[in-house]
Amino acid sequence: MKQLLETIVKPLVDFPEDVLVNVNEEDQRITYHLTVNKTDMGKVIGKQGRVAKAIRTVVYAAGSSQQKKIFLEIGE
Asked: How many domains does the structure of the chain reveal?
């Protein structure tokens, strides 16, 4: 899943080397923390959050086979 996120986000941003995905796994949930360069936040979020929503949709669909709830947090 971590590679999937990196594959989706790196082509969108100007600084792909700053893309970082951290995973926090708990009993009933997995949280992915996506960190990008401050200047790339707008590109990852998109107009009215459309790009972020699309990324979340893909991640949630890919993780639906797991028995845990998946969350994606985007930060700088």
From this structure: 1
